[in-house]
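Reviewer 2 asked us to include a model.

Predict the structure of this chain.
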Amino acid sequence: MTDTYVGAIDQGTTGTRFMVFDHAGQVVANAYEKHEQIYPEPGWVEHDPTEIWENTKAVVTGGLADAGLEASQLAAIGITNQRETTVVWDADSGRPVHNALVWQDRRTTDRVEELQAEDKVEWIRARTGLEADAYFSATKTEWILDNAEPLKLQSSRGNGLRDRAEAGELLMGTIDSWLIYNLTGNHITDVSNASRTMLYDIRELAWDDELLAEFDVPEAMVPEVRPSSDESYYGHTDPDGFLGAEVPVAGALGDQQAAMFGQTCFDEGDAKNTYGTGSFYLMNTGTEAVESDHGLLTTIGFQLSGEPVQYALEGSIFVTGAAIEWLEDVDLINNATQTAELARSVDSTDGVYMVPAFTGLGAPHWDGRARGTIVGMTRGTRKGHIVRATLEAIAYQTRDVAEAMEADSGVETTSLRVDGGAVKNNFLCQLQSDIIRTEIVRPEVDETTALGSAYAAGLAVGYWDSVDDLRRNWQVDREFTPEMDEADADAMYDRWGEAVERSLNWATEE
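Predicted model (structure tokens):
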């Protein structure tokens, strides 16, 4: 089996990546393609699902070609995806009826506030483990069915979207479902992605009839839910299709759960933080769904075939890497690698704090109307201060979540495994260790999201025998330990809380 591999489609917020891994978990192929970010109105974010599928085919075929591999050498394909982003499509033609509504999209904030006013927040949390928030798929699906009519692709039947949904003519799903459908023809999701819809009971492991009724989502629309690593397979690619081979599609995980899996956080208490467009801090809580009293989400981590579901506590931070992109958008930096140099060019932020609440604040604040804020500027403020304040904001937001995580779980974090593009920045990793007051561990393979989905698919087809094989693959690149005086770190963090207060409930006119 030395010439066989496992492929992973990593469909993220800004682009689509295809990676191929060998038995040692090492990368043998890697291709990437960006897709358009569509902003129809302030606070609205959309993607074109057709563009995402076309890009997926391009990176899979291009990645294999660049590495000199044949599709027949793939033992399996796994999928990982931007979570919560929601697509509704025609079951017959496979054509979307509207652009995908992205997890960052805030257009359903008013609907969420209705739920809050009707005292339905605790009911939703008890079933789903989630906060009532525009972040999740339920209100996005509801919005598409209610509002996409003028934009929908006309059906020869001419019925309204809701009638067609009731008749089973429309399907909904997160991006994993969209890709699985296009790869195999089957309408399937995994438990980790289902748990992010706000329509799925994470303890009963079933779509919740009352939640489906609340958001008027017909059960005929929702996908079949399967284990994250599925020995029965989700299906196979079409040998007459774009790959020209029949390859099992056997694993899927939402991107943050995939990163946890790739970081081999298989045991209760294991924790990781992924620094991507946003940051997502997950702790494995074992087979118990731990309820949060501190603004965290209770979510499904993963499920292997024939085994119980493993749960996790999650702190969802909406904007971290996207704050670095914003610095580039406004010409404060030319590229992300400049941030460390500029941050080091000043001794401190000189009292400047940046709260990157561009799409509201997630855990533990959960304020959809918070907005990006810079406070403390003087005439002497330079771009180095703003850049350093942006990196510090990433560290502070992570400490917000880390403290909530310890309070909910009762487990003191002594080591945090990190991954994602931003962890290549040594300055940020050291700053994170200083602010959070714990060891930061960076693995050799930092594309742990793709790796996790490859592991899930590979386990399902027997490419790897057990999770012990995966543990042996995990290798440390570098560790960071606190160097800053603890009192200084605490004083900086305390002031951060005051800056956050100034960002809250800003977008009252939206």
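The first strand starts at residue 5 and ends at 11. The first helix runs from residue 49 to 67. We have added this to the supplementary material.
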